[in-house]
Design a protein that fits this description.
Layout lengths: L6 E3 L2 E3 L7 E5 L16 H13 L4 E4 L9 H11 L2 E7 L17 H13 L9 E7 L7 H17 L3 E4 L6 H10 L7 E4 L7 H10 L2 E4 L10 H13 L6 E3 L20 H14 L1 H15 L13
Parallel strand pairs: 3-4, 4-5, 5-6, 6-7, 7-8, 8-9, 9-10
Antiparallel strand pairs: 1-2
Helix pairs in contact: 1-2, 3-4, 6-7, 8-9
Length: 314
Amino acid sequence: MAAQAVVRTVRGDLDPARLGPTDAHEHLFLETPLQPGDTFQDVDRAIAEAATLVAAGARALVDWTPLGLGRRADGLVAVSEATGLHVVGATGLHRDAHYAADSWARTATVASLQQRFVDEVTQGMDGTGARAGVIKVGAGYHAVSALEATAFEAAAAAHAATGAPVCVHTQHGTMGEALVERLRDLGVAPAAVVLAHLDRNPDAGEHTAIAETGAWLQYDGPGRTKYWPDSTILALIADVAKRGHGDRLLVGGDVGRANMMRAYGGGPGMDYVFARFRPRLARELGDDLARAIFEDNPARAFAFVPRPDEGRAA
């Protein structure tokens, strides 16, 4: 009998068919030297913010905050319990710039990181029983630093040991295809790779080439009008879908600053993608594409087959 694929949430493994409408990229808690004075660690505010996402129609979110950046596994569980959201947590490391000069991450070896990533996927994060469901790595702008290269190697080895998807921060959407190739050379099949922020570089031709490898294209620019309007992202989605790759698209809010959350007095709010962007996408590009991007695709992108001794989906 074939092993069953699951989405690993902080409250247990889930049959992918039960995941539901998903915000593919969020941050409920974050603290980084790259954003001084912009820390958000309050559990009650995280619950309040996530509740707006539920009210807008979401049933799941993937939290991309990795090691060393204020991730709170207990908080992720609290949000899930209070709101009913299926919450997927992340192990791994972010891009180099998020770690101070004296950070432990700068002296960590591939072997030590691999073991830590594996332990967090199979045993739990932050001393809790809440297990990570994705492995995060990040790259810089058109470059991969020594720390980032080490993290990529460790993530690939941890993926081989666990099957968990590898979620990649791309800086301004650069190097997407090259990062897929790097991971492929390290043994990670492109179908297990999710590339974030690609819509910062809204090049449908380049995205088509990435999609043809089998990797996932994750867009998270809706509501960021200071960069460009939602119409730019909708046009990009339409173009990529017309080229035959609507089945490789994911969308998230990536609310990565306190001043982007209503619970902290900012905006556009974590609910924007579901309250505003998804309805517009459905109106302009069709219900079928909206359903694929927010429901069908996440259920495949974030699913993996765990080791035989890890139990079955709920």
